[in-house]
Amino acid sequence: MTFERSFANFVQILSEEELTPEISPGALSDISKEYSLRSIVAVISFFKESDQAGEPDVVIPLFGPVQEKEAPDYLFKHNVAGKKTVTYNIYLYDGKSWNEEEYKSFAIVMDILIIHMERFLLEKAVKDSALTQYLTGLPNSGGFIAYATKLFESREIMGYDAFYFNLKSYGLISRRYGLSEGDEIMKRYAKKLKAFCDKGEMVAHFGGDNYTALIKKERTREFLDFLSSVPVYGIKNGKREELHIAAVIGVYAVDESLKEPGQLISRAGMALSYAKNVANKPYVFVNKAMSTRIYRQKQIEDRYEEALANDEFRIYLQPKVDLFTGELIGAESLVRWFCNGIVLYPAEFIPILEQEGMVATLDLYVLKKTCEFIKGWKENGIEPVPVSVNFSRRDLNFSHLAREIVRIIDETGIDRKWIQIEVTETANEDERLLMTNFLISLKEKGIDTAIDDFGTGYSSLSSLRDFPVNVIKIDRSFINNESVSENDEIVLKNIVRMAEELNIKVLTEGVEKPEQVDLLKSVGCHYAQGFLYDNPMPENDFQKRLIKRVYSE
Ligand code: C2E
Ligand code: MG
Ligand code: MG
Predict the structure, then answer these.
(1) End-to-end CA distance of the chain, in Å?
(2) Nearest bound ligand to CA 388?
(3) pLDDT digits (tens, 9 = 90+) for 393-416
(4) How many angstroms does the Cα of residue 390 sit away from the middle of ligand 3?
(5) How far is ligand 1, taken at its centre, from the CA of residue 334, in Å?
(6) pLDDT at residue 316 greater than cutoff 60
(7) Do the domain assignments include residue 395?
(8) What's the predicted TM-score (pTM) here?
(9) Which candidate, 174, 250, 161, 162, places its Cα nearest to that of 208?
(10) Which residues line ligand 1 (CB under 6 A)?
(11) Which residues, in sequence order, are bridge partners of residue 313?
(12) Separation of 335 CA from ligand 1 center, angstroms?
């Protein structure tokens, strides 16, 4: 067989094979005979930076067997991207060697091997960069999951605890040292973390100051101690300053309930958020109650869109009553979630939807349904009453909210006067501004508004002064004490008076007992809502109430 033939054969087979560094015996079999070739081993060495120990050489057998520490017969060297050298060690059968001609022609074979190796290294580099954080060089979330998956599949994960941590003074550091020195500090910090790790353990950097780790259970205490004060330094105006970085940490002590590697992150992450927001402690371990809560929370988030599409949200209406005449004067739309055979109340899911920025779609949905109810009553020849719909403060971030409300009302074709919008007061300055603008635009469009739960915030007086509303709804806490004190009565009386002078109507919520009605009448409050009259009810029941109209003793 000619050299050309066997060479062509080699190239052909190599290009068809899966991209691995090893060369199959098939590909090199003809050439290896011609050249008495026994083995080829590639050694990848990395150029070392002066202050670093550098990465160890990587030895990759490409072809045939090699005894350890055997000296090669020939060497071919090749630089890759200025960062590493690949040395190809060639071993021939005992006692064989090449003449000049053979050496030269084998160099052509080597060229092909080098191209093949470069393709392999390139692909590996791309893969690695998808798995490492660019700044610190630690594994990123992809790298973490890849490693966690391995441990998970071999069940070795049972011997580990999972950590998710943030730096306590991250913001402070970047403010004090600036972005680029801040990055350097992060690199030093990451290096310390890496140095802490024993064989089999890992620390990952998800970006920012988000770190995760998998540490052997018996070293968890030690790791927590270590994280409470990691010594690094920062350079400010050319001067070196010693720093001790502390972390806030969530720990998930891996147990049998682990179903998939992603939960290592979500569970440790939830403990972290608990440590930061609830416990205010440097570290928190995941406990059962926490995971049940988070599980439900997750379910609510996951099922929400589907539930909305499936009409699982039902609107209940609670009547509002004129205390002096007993007349039905309005209603409030209150949402319930019929979820897999159980009823969820707003307290269980509204805060979660608010947190996730999802509540606006629900509030607009409730508005739309409410408008349809009103339209239906008119079609049935029943005179409607104004119905109020709650809008969360979180909705205010949604620009054009007022416009969207008007659009929905007008689209159903009902008069805007049948809808009232309820919002709760807020002490936050930014929110107050958004709120005022929102209320003004509704007023301009002829839509009534109400302040809900009035008197429970810290800003009731300024709300009364600043917010252009038609109604205040006094919170039930003002009247539901066992005995209403003289002070309560004075406050109540003066709220009512003040509101009256400002041309604002007053309704009191949560009226359950006839004595409360007497009290409210005596202080001049005209309207109420509460179990004494009716619980929130489904729409068909409310229609009957609408027809009956008056509450008689
Ligand atoms: P809210 O707007 O202050 O609604 C009044 C709540 O008090 C309702 O509870 C109602 O059922 C309850 N209630 C009525 N009368 C009485 C009474 O005599 N005694 C007692 N103890 N409670 C009474 P619900 O339906 O559980 O709603 C709780 C809160 O959830 C509402 O407070 C409102 O802020 C929020 N919410 C309800 N529906 C929606 C909605 O569609 N969107 C938004 N953003 N929030 C909603
Ligand atoms: Mg309300
Ligand atoms: Mg209320």
Answers:
(1) 113
(2) 2
(3) 989 988 899 999 999 999 999 999
(4) 9
(5) 6
(6) yes
(7) yes
(8) 0.60
(9) 174
(10) 318, 334-335, 345-347, 350, 359, 363, 366, 390-392, 422, 452-453, 476, 509-512, 529-531, 536
(11) 337
(12) 8
